[in-house]
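Quick start: read one record
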Amino acid sequence: MDNETLKTYLADNSQVITIFMDKATDFLNRQNADRAPARQYNDAEIARQADKMLDEVIANIHDKIVPHTREQTPAAWEQFLSENDVLDDLELSMTELSFESED
């Protein structure tokens, strides 16, 4: 399973993507409010940055799961994710996630 397929699977079968995007967007908007008005990002740029952050998280999740799946088929991944309650664990992790500014 590649990153895009994993992203689609997570979006269709859990709240992981939604929770992450809400938190990332809130964080980026808070950061943006601290910028000088002339340097603030528009909503499209905030969305692009949140998508980039999400892609990094998906890649990280993918890299953590890949060693535990013998086959790289979507069916094998779905079986692994279901047998090991990965979706529930990811949702819990996302609800506990907090972003911190680099001051």
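The longest helix spans residues 43-65.
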